[in-house]
Each structure stands twice: as C-alpha cells, then as structure tokens.
Design brief:
By secondary structure, this protein is α+β, with helices and mostly antiparallel strands. The chain has helices at residues 10-26, 48-55, 70-80, 136-140, 190-195, 197-206, 216-236, 272-279, and strands spanning 84-91, 96-98, 101-107, 112-118, 123-125, 133-135, 148-157, 163-174, 240-243, 247-248, 259-260, 264-267, 286-293, 311-317, 338-340.
Length: 342
Amino acid sequence: MSTPFIEENDQTAARREHLEALRLLVGNVYPNKFERSAIVEPGREDTITAIVEKFHAFEPRKDDNARPAAEEIELANQQLNKFSVRLAGRIASPPREMGKAAFVHISDGVSRLQLYLRKGEFAGVRNDVGCGDGDGWSLFELLDHGDFIGVEGYLFVTKTGELSVHVQKLQFLAKALLPLPDKMHGLNDPEIRQRQRYADLIAGSLKLEKDEALTPREVFERRSAVVREMRRILEDHGYVEVETPMLTPLATGAAARPFNVGLVLGRTVPRELLAQACARGPAHSGTRTLSWWRCQDTPDLLGPSSLFGNWKSGHLWIPIPTHPSHSSSAIPTPHTASENTL
C-alpha cells in the first residue's frame, strides 16, 4: 500500500521492503520509548551533543593527514572504555561496511558521533516485550540513511583518533521512507525550503559542509530567543499577553472577505478591534500574539525559517492604557500600536 505523499521509485520501494523485513526481525518497528544513559549529568538523559562535548578532550592531538601515536590512543582508550553509554539518533551518513566491520555516524541535529559495529560482537534488540535479542548484523544490513536507531556500547577512539562508540546492542526505532537531501550542501531550492520545512531542518543538520550562514535549526532557536526576550521585556513593563481569535463569525474591516473553511469565517483585518474590546474592562496594558497566513504574492517578511508549512507567525504588541473614567460602552483608542515581525 502506497503513501500519498511518497513518490514511488526504486529508493522508496527498497526502503519499504527494508521496513517489512525489519518488522519480521524486531517486531514493533515504531517502539514507544528508548531510555538513554545519564553519565554526563545525573538525572538527565545523555544526548549525542552532551557526550561529544564531555569526551572530545580525550581525542589525541594529530597533525594534518597524520594519525596519532599508538601510545596516545591506548592511553585514551584505557579511560574511555570505562564509560558505557546508551544513545539514540538519526543515521547521518550512509553506513560504510569494511568486511566484517562497519562505521556509521548518528546525529541529534546538532552534533554527530561515530559508531563502530563488528559482526558477531553486537546483538539486535527486539522491540516486542519478552522476545530477547536477535542477530545484530542482520538488523544493521536493513538500515538506511536517515533511520533512527538506539545503541548501547562503550566509548573509545579509533586509530584515526575519532571519538566513537563500540556498539554492543543495536535497537531499531524508526524508518525514513524518503531518501534524505544532499548531505554535502543541504537544500538550496527556496520553494522546497518553504513548503517542506522538515526537509530543510534535516538537510541543514546533516550537511557536511559548514558555512557562515545560520542553519535552519539555529534560525529557529534565535527566533525563539528573540520572541522570548521581547515577551520578557513587555511583561517587566506591566503588559499582559492576550490571546484573541484570528477568525470570527463576522467579517471585520472595510475590505474583509469571508473564508469558506466548512464554516464561513471572516478574518479580523483591523487587529486593534479585539484589543480595544479588552480595554473596555478596563484592562491594563496588554500584548497580543496572533498568526496569519502567508500570501504567495507578498515578500517573505519572516525569513526562510519561520513556522512550518505556509503559516507565518507574528507578534502584535498593543499597549492598552488604563482609562478608569471610561464606561463599558466606550472604546478607548490605544496611544500606540506597533507591529513587530520576526
């Protein structure tokens, strides 16, 4: 059975076959939970980024195109082998098989970590309760670039000096049914970046070539930080955030036309009307947060990494002064009204 939004081709067909084979091998191909270790900060599950930041210092120093000394590697491994970790992430690069061994990188969207798997030295975890472990190598051969996996093993550095995990248990978590974008350069098509935000986030986090431009994830994080700081400043000045509807049964505004979305709803074009209604209470200064649609014929005011899909998010800060003398029927006019878009 095909999925409507997945184009049928050789790659998607192969991934679907792998998924069905995994279903026979591990049972539940979409497990509900994977418990990670907590060795970096007790009481908080480890992430790939946390492990890399904590143990990166154990990697021996090396010159360009030169391997570190064997003594340095042995000394580092004597300390690293004591740490057993349980991590989960997305396969960030196609697996590299070298006879009975294989290397693969997993990522949490920020950092990546190399895994070392050797045939016969790791087990494949079955996701069905009480079914025990299976053949790990058979499970590994059914993995594709972009799949989510969980691993358990001990830390070490390879002969090239790279921090890695020697896998002892491998657990399948989720299958990527679509091939990932170009891992070298990310996504460059602005139409795909706007309409398939998930693909932009994945490509930006997995691409190997880093440049000065912010990744989509970093844009999201900075936008969130800016909005959070603006909200904090307004709250410190006594403003109150008010949620008001974007669609109402009656169209407001001189040029407002109703939307037919099953119900005939009108868009609140003059956004200050609902804010003025709040002031009739009377209310103190307030802020209002709302969302609106992206118009295909207007410039992208919010940048290429706003909210998902065709939605735009904006914040309308409307100070509503206190007018104790006004009656409930009076509608005071706000002294200022400014719209800030991110």
